[in-house]
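Risk register update: the risk of archive-format incompatibility is retired. Evidence:
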Amino acid sequence: MSEANTDRETKILREKMQDLKDVEIGPLPPNSPWVRPVRMQFRQAGKLKKWDLLRIHDSVAMIVFNVTQRKLIFVSQFRPAVFYASLPEKQGKVDLQQYPPSLGVTLELCAGIVDKDLPIAEIAREELLEECGYNAPVSNFVKLHTCRSGVGPTGAMETLFYVEVTDEMRVNSGGGSEVEGELIEVVELSVNEFKEYINRPSIQSPPEVLFAASWFFHNKPEHCS
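Archived output:
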């Protein structure tokens, strides 16, 4: 695919990603397939306490480095929770002129939920193919850590991988699952571009992106020169 066609497709994808209408905030239905709110009651040091929690899926995430292009691979997408957190009005219809959809667009590691009965590295491999279009062998996935993705209302586990890919492994443009209506942009950053991004005073990314920077710069100096 030519660079002009790639740029055109990226522009169309970004337009679709931010093509929001009729945004309205309401209460969570009791049968959500993604989160389950519960209240935990316990006595700690003799004092009765209550804590509201969310049961969510465990997940995988990965630091992806294209050794052919010498670039790190990320994904960008509209995140409703990030958009919602930017709103002063927490219920009812949203004024998209005052609060544009760009407030919810993030830069993240390629990631996905653990919702299949498969080895964790295979789940990561499938997510990389679906989101970024790289068909990398499971043997390329190096497990780094398993950690908690949250410790307040959630406490799910996230498994982090490092994977190196090549241009030859790119079998499609990625973009996420069409069935699920995902709109995901694949973002390639040189090492210098990534350094510039993480040194900004504010970034539209989760903490795992900063962990990725720390791990990559410390453990892969041969790719940083």
